[in-house]
Task: structure prediction
Amino acid sequence: MQRVLPAPRLRRALCSLQAARCRSSWVRWRPVPAATSRWTQSVRERPFSTEVHEFKAETKKLLDIVAKSLYTDKEVFIRELISNASDACEKLRFLQTTQAVKEVNDADTPLQVTLSVDENERKFVIEDSGMGMTHDELVEHLGTIAKSGSLDFLQRGESDASKIIGQFGVGFYSTFVVADKVQVYTMTADKEKGSKGYLWSSDGSGSFTIEEVEDVPRGTRIELHLKDDATEFASLANVKKAAQKFSSYIDFPIYVKEEGEPKAINKQEALWMLRSATEEQHLEFFRFLSHNSYGKPFYTLMYQTDAPLSIKSCFYVPDPDNAPSRLFTKDPEIGVALHSRRVMVKKHADGVIPKWLHWMKGIVDCEDMPMNISRENMQDTRLMEKLSMAVVRRILRFLQQEAKKDPEKYQQFFKGYSYFLKAGIIEDKEGNFSRHKDDLLKLLRFECSNKSKGELISLEEYIDTAKEGQQNIYYFTCPDRQTALSSPYMEQFLQRQRNVILMFEDIDEFVVNAIEGFKDKKFISVDSADKNFELDIDQPEEDTSEDTRVLTDSEQTQLSQFIKSVLKEKVQEVKFSDRLVSSPAIVTSVITPHMRKMMKSLMAGKENDGMGNIPMTLELSAKHHIVTTLHTILESNEPVARIAVEQLYDTACIAAGTLDDPRVLMSRLNKVLEMFVYQGAGYDYAKGEYRGDLASPPKVEPTEVAKETKVESKDSRFEEVKPEEKPQTKRAPGDTES
Ligand SMILES: Nc1ncnc2c1ncn2[C@@H]1O[C@H](COP(=O)(O)OP(=O)(O)OP(=O)(O)O)[C@@H](O)[C@H]1O
Result:
């Protein structure tokens, strides 16, 4: 081993210079490190300047978690390093094929990866002849976190290393699980960028150093100085076993050096090019693609075709129980890679796989795809679209088949991924394609009013089991099943046993708004103002009770005029409809109450949320006893009628879910309670006196029910309530007129 150290005098001089520099800048001089092994035998070290860089804040945090972790599945670092080495080879092969790199350093060196160990020095070494890195790339790539997944985890405040490593892997930084010092020698393949070699070095604490070293061959060599509790990775047998596990599907030869001799350990098999594969092969490949040493694919699809393009592909749906959280999937990486004749064109095949399918793992190999596809090139864009169309359609149809084959298993899938399928419908529409809308709609499942809790149906099943002649698909967006079934909007549907799809996710409202219908049926919300409820296709059982009183047309007009005079601009229209069965009233508007509520929360904090301008309609049941009695007391007891109207409206708003804060009702409810109690005690509000037959009238008398009621609330609806006439009542002791 060649070890060239500066002479002691020079070293002392350098050290004092280093100390001085350290105070003033991040560049300082240091004694050069030792060159090691055959790979760097020719690396002559000179006192080049050594730069000290701080890791970015989040990288530091990640490193801190990783370095201190007692993660048991330590060998994952081998998987990460092999994968990075293979990516570096893929990248160089790609750039060479597309001639993006004109001249390559060490042009004769074949693309390969070699692993070796030094038991005495407790070292693990991996080297590749891939793309390598320039100085700036070293700073950028090994100083920041590349993996969005682990970043998300950190932003969530997660500090459990096994969760971060287990679910996302932490790439290069996983080396600090086993090493207390990591050295990376590298030289770029792109001659245009230079032929200088660099050494990156860090102990995984706050900083790393970079210095120039001479005679580094093309590619990257990573040396791990193993921690005391990780010496098993200095054993050849252990490394070989782990490397074999992680490298079966790598398309470059992987060698393990045994007694100085490189021995190939992988088959270099492109599974997606095979006609079929065993379950075991798929399991291995899935784990390889998902950077995991555990887990199995939930669904597996191998798809090959020659028309309209020549496609060979393989897709996996990961376990739905571990489906990505939609809240933390801001800019997801597509999990499918694009290849052309086995050569990787894009690691993340965006443009082919839409974002809403990002969780799919797999490979698409398209012979017709040029290696140097460009978004600017119309022909390439069209080719990508064609490929995307074929592949996405095949995936969606495959899921439809699986749903038919094993509905229970499919429900499990749907639980994990429903949000993404729904997002797909919206995105598909936004992109103005609507290419996959029907296929996606077929994959949706919902609860419905005619089935029991937890049982899901498809839209096709809904249509197949709908009443004869029914042209609409009725749905109701609501927080849960219980709220749905007790809602006045549902009454006529329940009475007729007309099935209603129950939608519990916020995104559902946007989905139905993004599409007009399914097959030839239109989506209609049960709480919409739409009149087309097809009430004539089935009639509920006749109400045979004799004393059912129904308001006549003129009575209806009289009552609605009174209601409008009380509620003023709160309602645009008061009408009578027969959609109500046991509730006296509901509110409707051009947008459904649920949509209104969502828009309100989106506009929260804005002075004008725009909702005040959307007119509401109060719909009444002409035969409901509260409504008919209300009409009866219009003239005889107007004060009570006024309060009843206000309460009727507010109760309808509660049912619609549009009342933001129920506390605004407190004052009125107390008033209603007071009336209820006093009436029970024999007080006659119409006459403003106690009934004569009451043996001993209560000592306290009611406040004026129709006294100007100004509720201390921000809700402007209450500020208008001013009765024209006051009833003659006796004042309660201590009650003063306002
Ligand atoms: N052997 C290598 N050769 C060249 N560049 C490398 C090598 N190893 C790492 N890098 C660079 O460092 C970056 C960070 O690597 P890291 O393993 O942390 O994340 P990643 O590989 O980008 O993540 P992912 O595995 O999700 O693609 C890589 O993207 C690559 O640019």
